[in-house]
From TrEMBL, chain A:
Occurrences of domain F-box (ranges): 3-54
Superkingdom, taxonomy of origin: Eukaryota
InterPro entries: DUF282_CAE_spp, F-box-like_dom_sf, F-box_dom
Protein name, per record: F-box domain-containing protein
TrEMBL record, chain B:
Species of the source: Caenorhabditis nigoni
Domain SKP1 component dimerisation, first and last residues per copy: 127-170
Signal sequence coordinates: none
GO annotation, biological process: protein ubiquitination; ubiquitin-dependent protein catabolic process
Protein role: Probable essential component of SCF (SKP1-CUL1-F-box protein) E3 ubiquitin-protein ligase complexes, which mediate the ubiquitination and subsequent proteasomal degradation of target proteins. Regulates cell proliferation during embryonic and larval development.
SMART domains, sorted: Skp1
Stored SUPFAM superfamilies: POZ domain (SSF54695), Skp1 dimerisation domain-like (SSF81382)
Family (UniProt): Belongs to the SKP1 family.
Compositionally biased intervals (Basic and acidic residues): 165-177
Lineage: Eukaryota, Metazoa, Ecdysozoa, Nematoda, Chromadorea
Disordered, as annotated region: 1-25, 160-188
Biased composition (Low complexity): 8-25, 178-188
Keywords (A to Z) from UniProt: Ubl conjugation pathway
Protein name (record): Skp1-related protein
C-alpha cells in the first residue's frame, strides 16, 4: 500500500484536484509545504473569483473576494508603529518594518495571478489620495461590472478607472461618498471613448459634463448635468428615434430655465406632469393642479380611497371653461379653472359648489390670492381643503 | 468490440455464458477479458465494462484476441493491489454502457484506499472515475488548516524537510569524509 502522500500524486491528478478546490483551499494548500507551493505557483490553477471589493479608508486597506458559491476571503491591512498589521478572520499578523501598502499590493497581485476568468463585479471604495496603490494596480482587473465610490476629483477617478480592462467592462457606476453633495466631476468625454463595450453608465451624486453623442451606444444611462443646451436636445432627438440600442436614459438637469421656452421648438407641445397626474395642455402658470394626485381609485371596502383625476374627468383651463355657468361671472378674469364629475360611489365632501355647476373650482393667476384654489359661490368662497381636493368614497368623513 | 448487451451477465458465474453463434441474432455476443493485480486473482470483465479504461480499451482493440487467447493471457497489473483492482472492476461493471452520474458517493472513505485508487485509476485512464476521486480529495482538503492537511497526508513541514535534508547531506558529507580519510589511510 502506498503512503497517502499528496505529493506522491502524478502531476495531472494533482492539477485536477486543484481544479476542484476553492480559491481558499488552494491558498491553504500553498502553505502546506514548499513543493506544493511551487507546484501551485507554476500551474496557477484558476481562482474563479466572481466578486472583488477593495476599500481604502481611515488608512486601512480591505480586500474582500468571493467565488460563485459566495465563499471568499476578507483581509485587512493597516499601518502600525514600525510595521503593519494584516488581519484575517482567524489570524492577525504583525509584520515588522513592512509597509502596509506594499504587503497589500503583493497579496492582491498574488490573488490576481490565479484569477483567470472575468470577474462579475468589482467594487472600489476609495476614501484617500493614495495614488501609489492605484498606479500599481493599473490594468489588473477584468470585470463586467465596476462600481466605484469615492469623493475626490476627475484625476483620481481616471486613476481608479485605469485599474480595469476597459475592453470587457459592461457596466460602470460611479457614486459620490458624500451623498447629496453633487460635486462636479467635470468633463467625462475622454474616458468614455476607452470603454467601447460599455452598456450601462450611472453617476450618483456627481455632476458631469458630457457630449451626449458619446453615450449613444449605451443601453442604460443615469447622468446628472448642470444644464442642457438646445444642441444636446437635438442630439437626443437624433439618437432616440433612430436607434434601438438605448433602453432607458435618465438625465437629471440642475438648471433647465435657459432652454425651457425653446424645448417646444424642437419637440413640439409638451405634456406637463405634476406627480402622478398628467394633463395635456395644462397652461396655468401660477396655479398648480389642485386635484389630489395620490388618489388610486375608489375601492368599495376602503373608505379612505378616492377617485383618480382621470376617473373624475378632471380638466383644467386657463380662463373660463367652455359652457361656463352664467352665475360664475364673479370669478376673476384670467383665472385657472377646474371641472370634474365624481364617479358613482364617490363625492366631494364639502359641497363648496353645486355639483354640475361649471366650473367647479377656480384659482387666480395674479393678485393677492394668486395660486389659491377656491370653490363655492361669490359671496362665500371656500378654500378647497382636504374635503374638496378629490372625489372620495361616499362613506368618507373628515376626522 | 463494443457490446450492447443488457448488462445482467456482469454478475454471471465464472463459466462464460455460451452465446449461440447465430448470424441472424442482431446482438453481438459479449466478449470477455481477464485482468489480475498484484495478488494474481484473475477478474473476468466484459469488453463493454472495460471501455471505461482508455488504457485497456486501447490494448484490446489492438490485440484482437479470441476468447481462448484472452483467457490464457490475463492482463497483468502488478502495480495495482488486488482489492483496489476489485474496486475498479466493480465500478466498471456498475457503470457499463451507462451515462455516469455527476457524483459518486461510493468511493472509499479511507484516505489510503482512495489514494491507491486514484493512482490505479489514473494509470488505467478511467476518466470519469478519476474525476470523482479528485473531487473527493478536494473535498477532504476543504476547510482544513495547513497543519491538518500535513497531518492527514503525511507531509513533512518545510522545517522538518530541511532538517531531514541537512541530516542526509551531513551523513553524505561524513561518509565522503570517511571515505577520503580511509583513502588517505590506504595511501599511507
Amino acid at each position: 500500500m502506498t503512503s497517502p502522500n499528496l505529493l506522491g500524486m502524478p502531476e495531472n491528478v494533482l492539477f485536477q484536484i486543484l481544479s476542484y478546490s476553492s480559491f481558499r483551499s488552494i491558498q491553504i494548500l500553498r502553505k502546506v509545504c514548499k513543493p506544493l507551493r511551487s507546484f501551485i505557483d507554476e500551474t496557477e490553477p484558476s481562482a474563479n473569483l466572481k466578486y472583488v471589493e477593495i476599500s481604502y479608508f481611515d488608512k486601512k486597506c480591505i480586500f474582500n473576494c468571493e467565488n460563485s458559491e459566495k465563499k471568499g476571503i476578507e483581509l485587512e491591512y493597516f499601518p502600525k508603529e514600525n510595521g503593519c498589521f494584516v488581519n484575517h478572520i482567524f489570524k492577525n499578523s504583525f509584520l515588522k518594518n513592512q509597509n502596509f501598502s506594499d504587503i497589500f499590493l503583493q497579496d492582491v497581485h498574488l490573488i490576481l495571478k490565479f484569477q483567470k476568468s472575468i470577474l462579475a463585479k468589482l467594487e472600489i471604495n476609495w476614501d484617500s489620495c493614495n495614488s501609489r496603490i492605484l498606479e500599481n494596480l493599473e490594468g489588473s482587473f477584468k470585470t463586467r461590472i465596476f462600481e466605484v465610490q469615492f469623493r475626490r476629483n476627475m484625476l483620481e477617478m481616471s486613476k481608479i478607472l485605469e485599474i480595469v480592462d476597459p475592453k470587457v467592462l459592461k457596466s460602470l457606476k460611479i457614486r459620490n461618498q458624500d451623498s447629496g453633495s453633487y460635486s462636479n466631476l467635470g468633463n467625462i468625454n475622454s474616458f468614455l471613448d476607452k470603454f467601447e463595450n460599455l452598456e450601462k453608465l450611472e453617476f450618483e451624486d456627481f455632476k458631469v459634463s458630457i457630449d451626449f453623442r458619446k453615450i449613444r451606444n449605451l443601453k442604460f444611462a443615469k447622468i446628472f448635468v448642470e444644464s442642457l443646451t438646445l444642441k444636446d436636445l437635438e442630439i437626443f432627438k437624433e439618437i432616440f428615434p433612430n436607434s434601438r440600442t438605448p433602453k432607458k436614459f435618465s438625465i437629471r438637469i440642475e438648471k433647465l430655465a435657459n432652454i425651457v421656452d425653446q424645448i417646444s421648438q424642437i419637440f413640439g407641445q409638451p405634456i406637463i406632469s405634476f406627480g402622478r397626474q398628467t394633463f395635456r395642455d395644462y397652461s396655468c402658470k401660477v396655479c398648480k393642479p389642485h386635484y389630489n394626485a395620490t388618489c388610486q381609485g375608489i375601492t368599495k371596502k376602503d373608505v379612505n380611497s378616492c377617485a383618480t383625476a382621470k376617473q373624475a374627468k378632471v380638466q383644467y383651463y386657463l380662463g373660463m371653461p367652455p359652457n361656463a355657468g352664467k352665475d360664475r361671472n364673479f370669478i376673476p378674469e384670467g383665472s385657472c379653472t377646474m371641472n370634474l364629475k365624481c364617479p358613482a360611489g364617490s363625492k366631494m365632501l364639502i359641497p363648496v359648489y353645486e355639483i354640475g355647476q361649471n366650473p367647479v373650482g377656480w384659482c387666480a393667476e395674479s393678485g393677492s390670492n394668486a395660486g389659491v384654489w377656491y370653490g363655492g359661490n361669490f359671496r362665500m368662497p371656500i378654500g378647497m381643503g382636504r374635503g374638496a381636493d378629490a372625489c372620495r368614497h361616499s362613506d368618507f368623513t373628515l376626522d | 468490440m463494443s457490446s450492447t448487451e443488457q448488462g445482467t451477465s456482469s454478475a454471471a458465474p465464472a463459466e462464460p455464458t455460451t452465446a449461440p453463434e447465430s448470424a441472424a441474432a442482431p446482438e453481438v455476443p459479449e466478449s470477455f477479458y481477464y485482468v489480475h493485480g498484484k495478488d494474481k486473482v484473475v477478474h473476468k470483465v466484459s469488453a463493454g465494462a472495460l471501455q471505461h479504461s482508455a488504457l485497456i480499451h486501447g490494448m484490446i482493440s489492438n490485440l484482437g484476441y479470441t476468447e481462448e487467447q484472452a483467457k490464457a493471457n490475463p492482463f497483468p497489473f502488478e502495480n495495482i493491489d488486488g482489492d483496489i483492482l476489485q474496486m475498479v472492476v466493480d465500478w466498471c461493471n456498475q457503470h457499463k454502457g451507462k451515462p455516469t452520474p455527476p457524483e459518486d458517493t461510493n468511493l472509499p472513505k479511507q484516505k489510503e484506499k482512495l489514494f491507491d485508487l486514484v493512482l490505479a485509476v489514473n494509470y488505467l485512464e478511467i476518466k470519469e472515475l478519476l474525476t470523482y476521486c479528485c473531487k473527493q480529495v478536494a473535498m477532504m482538503v476543504k476547510g482544513k488548516s495547513p497543519e491538518e492537511i500535513r497531518e492527514i497526508w503525511m507531509i513533512p513541514t518545510d522545517a522538518e524537510d530541511e532538517a531531514a535534508e541537512k541530516e542526509a547531506k551531513k551523513r553524505a558529507g561524513k561518509e565522503a569524509a570517511g571515505e577520503t580519510a580511509a583513502a588517505a589511510g590506504d595511501a599511507k
